[in-house]
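step: validate -> pass
step: tokenize input -> pass
step: predict -> running
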Amino acid sequence: MFRQFRSAVAGALTDALADLGYPTDDLGIEDPPDDVDATLASSVAFRLAGEAGAPPPQVAAEVVDAVDVDTTEYLARVETNGPYVNFFVDDAYLADTLDAARDEAYGHLPDREESVVVEHTSANPTGPVHVGRARNPIIGDAVANAIEYAGYDVDRHYYVNDAGRQMAVFTWAYETFDEADLPDPERDKPDYDLVRYYRAGNAFLEDGDEAEVEAAEAEIQSIMQGLEEGDEETYERVSEVVDTVLAGMRETLGRLPAEFDEFVKETQFMRDGSADDVVERLRDLDESVYEEDAWQLDLSAFGIEKLLVFLRSDGTTLYTTRDLAHHEWKFDNYDRAVTVIGEDHKLAFDQLRYALELLGHDTDQLEQLFYSWVNLPGGEGMSTRAGTGIDLDDLLDEAIDRAREEVERRMDDRIRDDDLTEADVERIARQVGIGAVRYDIVSKQPTKSITFEWDRALDFEAQSAPYVQYVHARCCGIVEEAGDEGLAPDAEVDPAALSTPEERDLLHIIAQFPAVVEEAAEDLEPHRVATYTREFAETFNAFYRECPVLTADDEATREARLALVVAARHTVANALDVLGVEAPESM
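step: predict -> pass
step: emit ->
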């Protein structure tokens, strides 16, 4: 209801300013000050004071008198508070919020009939996923979820780099080294199995006999050339390695979970001729130059001094060349293209955007979300080539182990009298442990580097995933107990029975959820949803402390509060779902 109310207030304020002869380009609609019990406020009087030749409080009073309260949906009254114009909702706003949130799909916005492809993760298939890269699938999945909740038709893509030098080295190493000469794999997974060849190959290229290294480099170059020429045998050789490693990586990502609708291979754009087509069109541009034995694009007109190499002297294309073809393919198939990528790729993406503009594309449909890295205490480095760093599998295993210890420690303090089996404890440990990792990472602004800390992530009492998940479990417990007592959570209720400040505060924050989803989707900022869940949990806990549900004094209050708990359960479950965090039914 908050979205509808905000829209109605904007319309009423626009009409009022127009009637007064004031400009309507900046309404200044914002959250009210903390000490004001309004739903929305406007600071427009500050902006108009100079034009009106009057102090802001006087202008605010003038605006209040001009607002048509009677014809504005959900508006009960408008008041001034110094220079602010404050808008208060009526009871219908709260009643409709309660009704809407009792639907399990609450928070999903109407279909916008617009398609969006979200590309994220896209880590090179050279070995297990490392913790340092974990932010990409976690943020990327949450961004895709938010956009989908906001009413868009979303496809989640993983762009597979299967054509570069790394994969040629990997293929050569896999075909060259004997498994008997390699150390045992760290896990019984295909990515851990094959990464041993990759590490051995890189070590050989760095320290091997000069003549043997030269022969190896010739074979690596032959593989790259074979891919460029569309040689089917070469493609199959490389694909065996790529697909095997990718299967292991997908298994790890599935634990988060981060699922994908399509794995788009880089070689697709070599094999179908679209990369060659891009090369020809780039060479025809006035900005195209041949320097240092390579075709390059001069982007200095866009403020970028570094030339963009798009074709080597030996006729092979580069990753960027193929990515240009990839993005043209996206533009042909989707209305918007969102890419979640590390901050170290900012220059490359600027070059990509401007090259696409030179090729005649409207790049307004292209959006990037850049993120910084995840560190562990102590600043451990991450390198697939060297085999150092912490694998994401290790982090998730430890998260589950730590969560299990915490759940078992709290068993005697549980309020609910349901008996948890070993399977229940294991399920909760997985939900809480992995949820803690996801939540802690996604709750921070993507551009800020973060250090993952266990004590913070798994704190049941603080601003963490378990803290929010516990609210959902508590709601489920109340609803289950109500069912045991014969109370129907979907019964018709009188919202007027919800009159305490805690009840109304909870309804107010429930009303905001769809708007939070919409803003997170528009701005590609899923951390806003995490912030919302923390505020929601605090608000619900205040309600829980002050407003007994099943032992309420009268039937009308009991039924209304139960309906409010159901609405809260749907809200927090779907907010966690946007973040990709499971909502346990018991903890």
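step: describe -> The chain has a mean pLDDT of 93.
step: cleanup -> pass
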